Write the structure tokens for this entry.
Amino acid sequence: MARQGTRTSHPGILRIDSNTFVVRVTTRHPTTKKRLEKEETIAGKLDDARRRQLELLDELTQKRTQTTTKPSTKPTTNVPPRQRAQPAMTLGDFARLWLGHLVDKNVARPAYVSTRVAYLEGLILPKLEAVRVDAVDEWVLEQWSVWLAGRRKADGNP
């Protein structure tokens, strides 16, 4: 839609005739990114239009902050945090579950599965089978890489 009027030196203010202006203000909501707009026709001088533009901007800013700080209408409950029902899974158990999933669901080709089994049995599980999944951190992986480096052959292969 084309705007009626000519531009003025102030963005958002258009001159319709000698003493009539269209004042337009927009702002965005910080979280929803929804645009809030207001537009008014003002009779008077350019200074009056500029003052009204600043007032409209203040109104929109207040409206935006009111919607931002509005309390949630969702009901709140005092539910205690969930406790773990079983001890953490070890890497060996996880590897068996993962490979079983690949075979059961036909996710991977048999050659891929057999290659992964060989890697697990030869390189990973001898050192990390009993480690809990939630206990794996940088230190554990560093110890494993040192152990793996000691197992390398003279040509550098594992």
